[in-house]
Amino acid sequence: MIRLTNVTKRYIKQIALKDISLTVPIGKIIGIVGGNGSGKSTLLRLMSGLLMPTSGSVTVNGEMANRRTSKVVSYSSDLGSFYPTFSVRDAVRFQASQFTDFNLVKAEEVMRLMRLDPHMKVKELSKGNRGRLQIVLTLAREAPYILMDEPLSGLDPMKRESIVKGIISYVDLKSQSLIMASHEVSEIETLIDGFIALKDGSLLRMADVEELHESEALRIADWMKKAYA
Ligand SMILES: Nc1ncnc2c1ncn2[C@@H]1O[C@H](COP(=O)(O)OP(=O)(O)OP(=O)(O)O)[C@@H](O)[C@H]1O
Fold it and tell me: Which residues does UniProt call coiled coil (predicted)?
């Protein structure tokens, strides 16, 4: 379980998250939603142990989140860290050498699903294909928690829903959870179990999608329009 207890994250000039408490168990597909600057990326980085909270605590499977958390949390890779000569397949093999839970067979399958040419140089990829490669590298790990920051950005709008469906089909809900930040609430609504809605760094609501449908008879996008007005 990922647990945040009274987490506040302050950057030098800015409070990015204020007093957030929430838990994410195994077996869930969760969307983090909210406007620009609401704190979505900061929340993911705290969960991955790449950022430390200013106050409060973040634990993953009972242990304080820190650099070692990357053993159990697969988070979007920074493609800038690869050698300029790397092809897509080199990047996949490199990732496999870094993480013992990296599944090369799964990576090849997701690469085909994403229609990525394994011979292309990483530095020559378009923005959309860089995003696809990040999805491959993140999803091919059999880590308990898969975190993705805006996996749909840069992707052709016509393909987004089918790509999210593809991503989800590779998550093993018996042993994993997928947590993804997205601006495109309507494109993920039918595919997620629950959502974390942030507004200006505060937690507006965390709920199951079904619970929202039953209690408010609203889709998330419509609820957000009301809640964020
Ligand atoms: N490294 C940083 N240094 C200073 N301020 C930062 C830093 N990263 C984020 N912020 C600020 O923290 C707030 C939350 O940013 P964050 O990137 O987490 O939001 P977001 O919801 O992911 O935004 P977006 O949807 O625009 O990507 C913003 O006001 C942002 O300007």
Answer: none
Q: Whose CA is nearest to atom 4 of ligand 1?
A: 11
Beta bridge partners of 145: 73, 177
> What ipTM goes with this model?
0.97
Residue by residue, pLDDT tens for the chain (229 residues) are 999 999 999 999 899 999 999 999 999 999 999 989 999 999 999 999 999 999 999 999 999 999 999 999 999 866 767 777 899 999 999 999 999 999 999 999 999 988 999 999 998 998 889 889 999 999 999 999 999 998 888 888 878 888 888 899 999 999 999 999 988 788 888 889 999 999 999 999 999 999 998 988 888 989 988 888 7
Shortest CA distance to 195 belongs to which of 55, 1, 22?
22
HSE-up (13 A, CA, CB side) for residue 228 = 18
| Distance (Å) from CA 201 to ligand 1 centroid | 9
C-alpha 52: how far from chain center: 18
| Residue ranges of domains in the chain, CATH in brackets | 1-72+144-156+174-229 (3.40.50.300), 77-142 (1.10.8)
User: Which protein residues touch ligand 1 with a CB less than 6 Å away?
Assistant: 11, 14, 16, 34, 36-42
Task: Specify the residue with its C-alpha closest to ligand 1, atom 31.
Answer: 37
